[in-house]
Amino acid sequence: MPKAKGKSRRHKYSYNLNRKRLYRSARRRAAPRIACSHIRHAWDPHKSVAQNLAEMGLAEDPNKAIPIPKKLLGMEVESGRQQPGKKLVRKPYVVNEMELEASLPEKKSNTLSRDLIDYVRYMIQNHGENYKEMARDEKNYYQDTPKQIKRKINVYKNFYPEEYKNFIASLKPEKMEVQ
């Protein structure tokens, strides 16, 4: 079959276009991506990265901020540089907010999906501790082996110990009524 007439014309390479100049100007305009919200709010786009970080009391290069002493044969050699005077920090609140945020305890983000919780509770409710029976159950859609099911139950026990204890306690009266 013949090609469409316009298709080959669309993909022709333009040799006259200077792509280096286009790429360079696009990079120059792009502002740095800042992840920390405290730094982002205090950032001045009219100043350089080094000037912005110096105003906030942050180091641009950690190797220059805290120099590593040179050791020669187990003895420290003093460098000719003296400690420069402290630079003026105009925005100390940025460092203070970052330290405060870092000192907060981390939230526990261990959670299980609702489907997995329902699956484990169903298996325990119908089969108790018999993992081989659980593996043969028709609700075992993923065809988990007895060891895999046991591992899932142990994960549920570790993530939600109080909920597991209450669930087991609620099962005991049901079993007494059946017998």
From TrEMBL:
<dbReference type="GO" id="GO:0005730">
    <property type="term" value="C:nucleolus"/>
</dbReference>
<dbReference type="InterPro" id="IPR019002">
    <property type="entry name" value="Ribosome_biogenesis_Nop16"/>
</dbReference>
<protein>
    <recommendedName>
        <fullName>Nucleolar protein 16</fullName>
    </recommendedName>
</protein>
<dbReference type="Pfam" id="PF09420">
    <property type="entry name" value="Nop16"/>
</dbReference>
<keyword id="KW-0539">Nucleus</keyword>
<dbReference type="GO" id="GO:0042273">
    <property type="term" value="P:ribosomal large subunit biogenesis"/>
</dbReference>
<comment type="similarity">
    <text>Belongs to the NOP16 family.</text>
</comment>
